[in-house]
C-alpha cells in the first residue's frame, strides 16, 4: 500500500477540547483501519504542527477522503502527503535517463531535464 505523511494542526475548537484528544485519536485510528488503512506511527510534536502520523492507505482517494473527514470534525486541519521510499525515489531518478533519450530532451523542448 502507498505510504502517506499526515500533518495535523489543532483548531481552536480542538485546543479547547484537548482533554478529549486521546480518545478522538484512538477513534480516528480505528476508523482509518476499518476502511483498509494502517497507522504505522503517530506522534504529538512541537512546532508548526501538533501531530504527525505515518500511514499506509489503499488509495490516494481514500486517504484524501479520510483527511477531509478529519478536518470536518472541527478539531484538526489535516494535510496528507504521498510519501515515496528511497527505493521508489531511486527508481524515479533512473527514469530520467529514459526521458533524456526521448525527443523531450531536445534543446528546443519546453522541458529542461538537465536543469
Which ranges are low-confidence, i.e. pLDDT below 50, for 5 or more consecutive residues?
A: none
Beta-strand percentage range = 25-35%
Amino-to-carboxy terminus distance: 32 Å
Global mean pLDDT: 89
Choose one word for the global shape: elongated
SSE order: EHHEEHEH
Strand order of the largest sheet: 2-3-1-4
Number of helices: 4
- How many runs of DSSP E, i.e. beta strands? 4
Rg computed from alpha carbons, rounded to a whole number of angstroms:
19 Å
Share in helix: 40-55%
Largest sheet: 4 strands, antiparallel
Secondary-structure class: alpha+beta
What features would you describe in this structure?
It is a single chain. Helices cover 42% and strands 25% of the residues. The mean pLDDT is 89. The protein contains four helices and four strands, in the order E-H-H-E-E-H-E-H. The longest helix has 16 residues. The protein has 115 residues and is α+β, with helices and mostly antiparallel strands. A hairpin with a 6-residue loop joins strand 2 and strand 3. The protein has a four-stranded antiparallel sheet.
